[in-house]
Amino acid sequence: MHPDIPRFPVGAIDAHVHTRHSCDSDMAPADAVRAARARGLSAVVLAEHVDFDPADQGFGFYDTVAIDASIAHIRNSIFDIRVFKGVEITYQPQYEDAIREFIRAGRFDWVIGSVHLVGPDDISRPEQRERYFATRGQRQAYGAYLDEVERLAASGLFECLGHLDLCKRYGHRYYGPLDRDLFAPQLSRILGSVTAAGMHLELNTSGLRQEPGEPYPSLAVARQYLALGGDKLVLGSDAHSPEHVGYAFSEVRAMLDTE
Ligand SMILES: [Zn+2]
Ligand SMILES: [Zn+2]
After folding, report:
1. Distance 199 CA to ligand 2 centre (A)
2. Mind listing the pLDDT tens digit of every residue in the chain (259 residues)?
3. Residue 163 CA, ligand 2 centroid: distance in Å
4. Domain count along the chain
């Protein structure tokens, strides 16, 4: 981790932005940085996707040379905001060795670990999502996702846990709001692992512009983390277009301050 990243106040850095170096974004990297600057942010992390599963739509897309060239160009042309080289790695337990080696070789400023698939099920793909959620109750569907998150947090591979309960994004239409009581022990274990490992917990604001209408994880879970003594909360917009960079950061900061 770049030593300056933890020094930014919560909400002064957007720690999770995707540019056209990610398979699912066509945002020019310079546009992402200009948008962050226009929002008054002090720093932004370009955290491009990396996927290790050959069945994943992003497999093979990551281009280190192109990304390094982009970041060098931006640092030489946009001066009044810090730009960090991050990465968002899709965590799957069977690829731990490959992930470890990739991180070691990549010299990243910031490494996010995220769960996007539950076993073989890519719940972001419409047809797989329908099969996954329509045939399971909330306890089973979200529980399996959180099982993977538990493994991620225990793996020791990552500096930041991305969107803790992204399963809500796709499950919300089947179950409504996540029932925190169903997952209280599991959420406690995850937050305990994150805290013990000294990982950052991302409050991913993309959920506020998607179906759940709340961040990943919710503010209630973020407060639980703070109450446990967690002091490494970071905001990420998961922007794939300029208008979403720094999305709802002031609102979230105000909510964290007031309640
Ligand atoms: Zn993600
Ligand atoms: Zn992302």
Report:
1. 17
2. 999 999 999 999 999 999 999 998 999 999 999 999 999 999 999 999 999 999 888 898 999 999 999 999 999 999 999 999 999 999 999 999 999 999 999 999 999 999 999 988 888 888 889 999 999 999 999 999 999 999 999 999 999 999 999 999 999 999 999 999 999 999 999 999 999 999 999 999 999 999 999 999 999 999 999 999 999 999 999 999 999 999 999 999 999 987 5
3. 8
4. 1
> What is the distance in A from the centroid of ligand 1 to the CA of 59?
14
Q: For the domain that residue 220 is a member of, what is the CATH number?
A: 3.20.20.140
Among all ligands shown, which has an atom nearest to the Cα of 115?
1
| Helix spans in the chain (H) | 29-38, 64-75, 96-106, 126-134, 138-155, 167-175, 184-197, 219-227, 249-258
Q: Which ligand is nearest to the CA of 238?
A: 2
Q: 165: CA distance to ligand 1 center in Å?
A: 10
Ligand nearest to the CA of 244: 2
User: pTM of whole model > 0.85?
Assistant: yes
Hey, what are 184's tokens? 């209280």
- Residue 92 DSSP code: -
Distance 243 CA to ligand 1 centre (A): 18
Contact 17, 248 (CB under 8 A): no
The parent domain of residue 144 ranges over 5-258
Quote the ligand 2 centre to 122 CA distance (angstroms).
15
Token pair listed for 59: 């497999």
CA distance 57 to 145: 19
Q: How far is the CA of 178 from the centre of ligand 1 (A)?
A: 18
